[in-house]
Design a protein that fits this description.
Layout: H1 12-22, E1 26-28, H2 31-36, E2 50-53, H3 57-72, E3 79-82, E4 97-100, E5 108-112, E6 117-120, H4 126-134, E7 138-139, H5 152-157, H6 165-168, E8 175-181, E9 187-189, H7 195-202, H8 207-221, H9 223-229, H10 256-259, E10 268-275, E11 277-278, E12 284-290, H11 293-304, E13 310-315, H12 316-324, H13 331-335, E14 341-347, H14 352-365, E15 371-377, H15 378-385, H16 392-395, E16 411-412, H17 418-431, E17 439-441, E18 446-448, H18 458-477, H19 493-496, H20 502-515, H21 531-536, H22 545-553
Parallel strand pairs: 2-4, 3-4
Antiparallel strand pairs: 1-2, 5-6, 6-10, 7-11, 8-9, 8-10, 12-14, 12-15, 13-14, 13-17, 16-18, 17-18
The protein binds flavin-adenine dinucleotide.
Flavin-adenine dinucleotide binds next to strand 3, helix 5, strand 10 and helix 22.
Length: 554
């Protein structure tokens, strides 16, 4: 029997006690614990009322069933799944219950080397998964830069992408099957099913059956809208765009793409089966410094023709910031002084000859250009690839009380518009008296930039959303979109949805309603929020030092 307050709802400590009695994991309402869970890598702060550390899928089911029943009685207690809380958009934050997966549910359960499939719990550390696979010469090539300090579940639920994604796609491409705890506590296994099996599923008198029935109807009713506005070869993680991948022309049906990238808003993933591939351990890295940005930009298209695994562009000012903090790279000698832009190229062909052949072609391509080329293989290549982490120096910039919140990471801009885009971003930066150095994953047009701000100052705090608004407009004006990497979460939803048509937004809302009719799962994530509310949730200060530390030492 649960004790209730004067309005008939259970008091928090009673909820905690009740859940603790019923699950194998732990429950905490300790203020220090809740404070630690009130932030992720975003600029927001939202304190949960309770932390739950599930040990088994059944724990998650019991918690979900409890909050579902509470919601049926009119009291919504949000349930937010959390990996390592490195999300940059506030998606790992929520009031109510913070469900922390990595504490116990962090095991690698099984590996099938023949099928190249690995079965895991969601809280497994993402880099450890690749470390384990490397013993078999394999990897999941799309892990994010943050793999060393984030979970595999977080990577999948954010549809993360990483340095190799220009060539190997996003995390979604490496997901085979998911086990999902639904909003009411039922469990569903995703997989591609035939038209015949879909009809069987639709006949089930359960929540799972209801999901298949409603979603299939939704897709059929919106077929034209989906084909015209959501089918695209270019990655767009906004809302539930992945609905376009659920039903194929042959009538087969798979919920997996929809759960991938859903940021915990459609269900809690309790187990995953991911695909892996053989990976070359021999790599060649090339760093090219350019005297001017134009020459660097112009070189990108021809360099892409060499089929590199890595092709990244950096504004030279990023290296100036690193140098201020004492960091130098081997290619500084070749560049003899400062440079306006740099390009990192990586080849991962299995054959040594193939890599050397590509390097030769690369040198030939740039023979008449004012550029300095440094080439490294083996261990030295690893050191050169570390140049990618130059952006981490922005996470903890030199200077007192300054920080560079990752507000704009992961937009898409088509390469043909990159030059104009770069000019527009420079104008935006000048207008707001900030610097916005660009880092671009050129193979798929993913763009990163972080403004250096003093968030203790009211003026700089006010700049956050102004900048985001104007930056979004620039991205869209140049044929791009804001949410190419990870999700929009809380911080970016308002801005990313501004240019979406009403019928698309209605479709997204209908998807959410099907999976989460009582709005329990991560409410406020992948939903438009009033600016006033976002401002009220801003952290007093912003400090990414911990993440910078991880990046620089992982
Ligand atoms: C320095 C830095 C670099 C980064 N680099 C990249 C990058 O290269 N590419 C990239 O895509 N992102 C990047 N990120 C963002 C983030 O680190 C990644 O997306 C990462 O994969 C998130 O993992 P996590 O364990 O921290 O997840 P969290 O932040 O805890 O959660 C992320 C989202 O997934 C949901 N979630 C987590 N686990 C589950 C589950 N089991 N079931 C349901 N929902 C769940 C959460 O509710 C939340 O919405 C970076 C962040 C930082 C700070």
């Amino acid at each position: 029997m649960i004790v209730t307050n004067e309005r008939g709802y259970p008091t928090m400590s009673k909820v905690a006690e009740y859940l603790q009695e019923h699950i194998l994991g732990e429950v905490s309402t300790n203020p220090a614990v809740l404070k630690a869970l009130s932030t992720d890598a975003s600029v927001l702060e939202i304190t949960p009322e309770m932390a739950v550390y599930p040990r088994v899928t059944n724990d998650i089911r019991k918690v979900a069933r409890f909050v579902y029943q509470l919601a049926e009685k009119g009291h919504v207690m949000p349930l937010t799944a959390r990996g390592n809380g490195t999300d940059e958009t506030g998606a790992a934050l929520g009031k109510g219950i913070s469900l922390i997966l990595p504490a116990h549910m962090n095991q690698i359960l099984e590996f099938d080397s023949k099928q190249k499939l690995i079965r895991l719990q969601p809280g497994a550390n993402a880099k450890s998964v690749n470390d384990a696979l490397s013993l078999h010469g394999m990897s999941i090539p799309s892990l994010p830069v943050s793999a060393a300090y984030s979970t595999i579940g977080g990577a999948v639920l954010n549809n993360a992408s990483g340095p190799l994604s220009g060539r190997y796609g996003d995390m979604g491409e490496w997901v085979h099957q998911l086990e999902v705890v639904l909003a009411n506590g039922d469990v569903l296994q995703t997989e591609r099913i035939s038209k015949r099996d879909l009809n069987k599923k639709k006949g089930m008198q359960t929540f799972e059956g209801e999901i298949y029935r409603s979603l299939d109807n939704l897709i059929e009713d919106n077929r034209q809208l989906i084909e015209q506005k959501l089918v695209s070869d270019i990655r767009d993680n906004v809302g539930y765009s992945a609905i376009a991948k659920v039903k194929q022309r042959d009538g087969s049906f798979d919920l997996t793409p929809l759960i991938v990238g859903s940021q915990g808003t459609l269900g809690v993933v309790s187990e995953l089966i991911l695909k892996a591939q053989f990976t070359s351990t021999q790599q060649t890295a090339v760093f090219i410094t350019f005297a001017n940005k134009e020459a660097a930009r112009d070189a990108l298209d021809s360099l892409a023709e060499l089929s590199p695994a890595v092709l990244e562009y950096f504004d030279g000012v990023l290296f100036t910031e690193a140098e201020k903090q004492g960091r130098t790279y081997s290619f500084y000698n070749a560049a003899s002084g400062t440079f306006d832009a740099g390009i990192l190229v990586g080849f991962d062909d299995f054959s040594d000859r193939a890599r050397q052949h590509k390097v030769k072609k690369l040198k030939k391509m740039l023979i008449n250009i004012d550029a300095q080329i440094t080439v490294e293989d083996g261990q030295e290549a690893t050191a050169l690839f570390a140049a990618r982490e130059v952006t981490a120096y922005l996470l903890s910039p030199a200077g007192k009380d300054v920080s560079a919140p990752p507000l704009f990471d992961g937009a898409y801009v088509p390469s043909a518009r990159f030059e104009d885009f770069q000019i527009a971003v420079t104008t935006l930066a000048e207008k707001h008296h900030v610097t916005l150095p660009l880092h671009v994953r050129a193979l798929d047009g993913t763009v990163y930039t972080r403004p250096i701000l003093q968030l203790q100052k009211v003026g700089d705090k006010q700049k956050i959303f102004k900048l985001l608004d104007e930056y979004t407009a620039i991205v869209e004006r140049h044929g791009g979109h804001l949410i190419a990497e990870a999700g929009e979460g809380r911080v970016k939803a308002r801005f990313a949805y501004k240019d979406l048509d009403d019928d698309v937004l209605e479709l997204f809302a209908a998807v959410k309603e099907i999976f989460d009719p009582n709005a329990i799962l991560n409410p406020g994530v992948k939903q438009t929020t009033e600016l006033r509310q976002l401002v009220s949730e801003l952290r007093a200060g912003y400090d990414t030092a911990a993440f910078a530390d991880h990046v620089l030492h992982s």
